[in-house]
From TrEMBL:
Molecular-function GO term, any one: mannosyltransferase activity
Transmembrane segment boundaries: none
Pfam families for the chain: Gly_transf_sug
Organism field: Acidithiobacillus thiooxidans
Any one Gene Ontology cellular component term annotated for this protein: membrane
Keywords: Transferase
Protein name in the entry: Glycosyl transferase
Biological processes per GO annotation: mannosyl-inositol phosphorylceramide biosynthetic process
Length: 279
């Protein structure tokens, strides 16, 4: 099934759906929901060229590697190893879709969906620094765990969670969506499966010389649509989804980092050709 074309009305409906979901006051089920399909205690990350990884990015990644001493597993992939993983577990179609990802951020977006569908675990971006003394609770239960975000169009800034998560908080300039970082899932999660299917089709539909918008194709926009579609078609999304309202207690995005000033920053390279001549 091909993804429906987006429209301002679809965008508004999706934002309102997410607002209601993240603000809704309901008794959360225990994080350990008793299902046998628990989330593997693996932290997964991606940097497109490990041989040319900036020192400041390595420092961020090392903050997650340290959890190996506490019994967690850490896996770091690059463009080559991600392609091997996708080819082995999915085959030619998905490998070709990955090859259509023209920027490292887009590759990371697509790869995390592939990895989590097969193996499960906690995917976190390479620019996140773990500040928590305990991450074990993030792996409890089998529901997909996602971080809510809210963008204020008028101010051009992100709204604070302390503001937009308040019940009934609303501003007509706010856009609610789900981040795809972190992404915590058990193996074979249906929402991850839907998000991967959507991203694959969108990459296939792009013309040979087309560079599709990253967020909408493989990133948070695609994930938000996948969650919205899941609830629209099947309902009861809350039985499959847990909103991480306190991710900032576990990790922070380090800013600035050296790569943010060049083409490796997707915000500077969205819908532009990326030349792989550096780390």
């Amino acid at each position: 099934m091909q993804p429906e074309p987006d429209s301002p009305e679809h965008h508004r409906q999706r934002s309102e759906f997410i607002r209601n979901l993240v603000q809704r006051q309901f008794v959360q089920e225990p994080l350990d929901d008793g299902l046998l399909q628990a989330t593997p205690r693996t932290v997964v990350q991606f940097w497109h060229n490990q041989r040319q990884m900036p020192d400041d990015v390595k420092e961020c990644i090392d903050s997650w590697v340290r959890w190996e001493a506490k019994g967690f597993k850490h896996r770091l992939f690059d463009e080559c190893s991600a392609k091997v993983f996708i080819d082995h577990n999915f085959g030619v179609r998905h490998k070709q879709a990955f090859e259509c990802c023209y920027h490292p951020a887009m590759q990371a977006d697509y790869f995390r969906l592939c990895y989590l569908l097969v193996e499960g675990g906690l995917y976190v971006d390479a620019d996140e620094v773990c500040i928590s003394a305990d991450i074990g609770c993030l792996f409890n239960g089998s529901r997909l765990k996602v971080q809510p975000l809210c963008y204020d169009i008028d101010s051009g800034t992100m709204a604070s969670p302390s503001v937009f998560l308040s019940v009934d908080a609303f501003d007509s300039s706010w856009i609610f969506y789900f981040n795809n970082n972190p992404l915590i899932a058990c193996r074979g999660h249906p929402i991850i499966e839907n998000a991967l299917s959507r991203a694959t089709i969108l990459l296939e539909l792009a013309g040979k010389n087309e560079l599709p918008e990253i967020q909408a194709t493989t990133g948070p926009g695609n994930l938000s649509k996948a969650i919205f579609e899941f609830d629209t078609i099947l309902g009861c999304v809350e039985s499959e989804l847990l909103v991480l309202r306190d991710w900032d207690a576990f990790a922070i995005s380090k800013w600035p980092l050296s790569y943010r000033s060049d083409a490796r920053n997707w915000r500077l390279s969205n819908q532009q050709k990326f030349y792989r001549n550096g780390g």
